[in-house]
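Predict both folds.
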Amino acid sequence: MSVSTPLHKAVTDHDDNSTPSPPSCFHCLSRSPTFIELQQIEDAFVKILGLKPIFFRPPYGNYNDMVLSILAQRGYKCEFSLLSA
């Protein structure tokens, strides 16, 4: 499978046919790896869009109090809600 999305290019800094890593399980990481993962994601968005994101949805909706604390500390607006159809 060829992966050549702009986000993949920005994160890996190259365009090849390798399979990207799955998203991190943020609620399973300790504090330092969570900071590193978020920094890499922010860097990719800045490189592609020129803007730092202000909202963040943890992959698969998995998070804990530590993740919410880190997101708030980094300036993210944290709001998770279920909307009825």
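Second protein follows, with its predicted structure tokens after the sequence.
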Amino acid sequence: MAHCLLERTKKMLLWTAVHSMRILPDQISIGVANARLYAKMNDMAIRDGLTRIYNRRHLTELLRKYLAKAMAKKSAGFTCTF
């Protein structure tokens, strides 16, 4: 009886391992696809669809970031051209 239970447990563990190995590539594939989609949506949010140049909101955020960085370093000068 104990031998039969042990065999069933081994079969169940083997089935679980095989099932997990089949699911793992699918999950990885979904994760990669989601990462690519996120990157594409992020790019679409900061660039104009027709000209592919950065939109004003993104440029304003970049300007704030660079100004804060320059102020933190106490840089002597800052140039911004449009």
